[in-house]
Design a protein that fits this description.
Arc Repressor Mutant, subunit A; 3 strands; mainly alpha; three-stranded antiparallel β-sheet; DNA-binding; homodimer
Chain lengths: 170, 170
DNA sequence: CCTAGATCATCAGTATACTGTCAATCAACA
DNA sequence: TGTTGATTGACAGTATACTGATGATCTAGG
């Protein structure tokens, strides 16, 4: 039985590597998102944050970072920008002076309703080159892989963390 | 025939969106890469740049950005860091004063040989949670999708650009 | 009550990404 | 030959990501 040959040090090996393909696809996805949504001045990250705050009004920044699996440090500046655009507001929590609670403003709720069709178009465009059956297969595999690799990332997704702020007695 | 229902504005819709999954998978891939390669002080981008320079010695920065589909502006600082670590060197092109040609140093060639096993481990770990058949299926679909969406990104891959510096008379 | 450990927000530092601009240089053409 | 247009490298500005540190605050235990 011949042993596996040493991989060649060429750029073609990189083109077929999972890490390269994931990076490339992410670049493409962001590019398509920005193109479809350029009228709204919202990045993909800002959009996800708005959706999460809409789903969990009164969430704090640390829990928000767990709910969308975004880096906590980065999220600070994302929140600042959303606040500067008057899409969200921060209110100090009465029972805990460390925490600032996040809420959508009317502008934030409005832009969320308006941007949805553009976001849907963007998501559809990302997969458009594939046949419908292949789109389903790819999404199914990706959902699995992201879920099974959840702990591998420094900021794992903790969707259930969002519930904590509703009542600590749970 | 009922019209498609309006998508709900909830975080669960985001979890299943292609754009979110690509971003998440990219985060996971970088995290795994950095973990496996932490002994070498090389990022995924720096690794890809080194491989490309190894494959195309004497390439210039603009062509390099086309060959690995990385942003040209960002690549400037990537090159600076690689040069600071003494992994590459830049030589002015005798026939064109605008261009600086990129070459691996001995250190650069050495670290490339040494890091390959760690990179292979990282790439394998990214797909490890899937069954072997599913890994193949996912990679096949991703290669297709990235290729078919190549023009959608601001910096499309132009692998053939690398050949130009070898002889403009082609 | 007071301290030890945990939690929250913030900041400093590094590394990707992308947009847009600029000067130096080159190539092509009138 | 002199000018136009394209190319190259560099830079400024914005936005994500991650690491690590810090101070304010809360909770638990003594």
């Amino acid at each position: 039985m011949p042993s596996k040959p040493a991989p060649p040090i060429t750029i073609d090996a990189v083109y077929a590597a999972p890490g390269y393909l994931f990076r490339r696809m992410q670049q493409i996805a962001v590019s398509i998102f920005m193109e479809e949504c350029k009228a709204f001045d919202l990045t993909p990250v800002q959009y996800a944050a708005l959706i999460a705050i809409h789903t969990h009004p009164g969430i704090d920044a640390t829990r928000l970072s767990a709910v969308i699996a975004f880096d906590r440090s980065t999220l600070g500046s994302v929140i600042e920008r959303l606040q500067a655009k008057d899409f969200i507001e921060r209110k100090p929590a009465p029972e805990d002076k460390r925490i600032k609670l996040l809420y959508l403003t009317k502008s934030g709720a409005a832009i969320l309703r308006e941007i949805i069709p553009a976001v849907e178009r963007a998501q559809a465009r990302m997969l458009e080159p594939l046949k419908p059956a292949d789109r389903k297969a790819l999404m199914g595999l990706l959902v699995q892989l992201v879920d099974l690799n959840n702990e591998a990332s420094r900021v794992p997704l903790r969707a259930e963390d969002a519930l904590e702020h509703l009542g600590k007695g749970g």
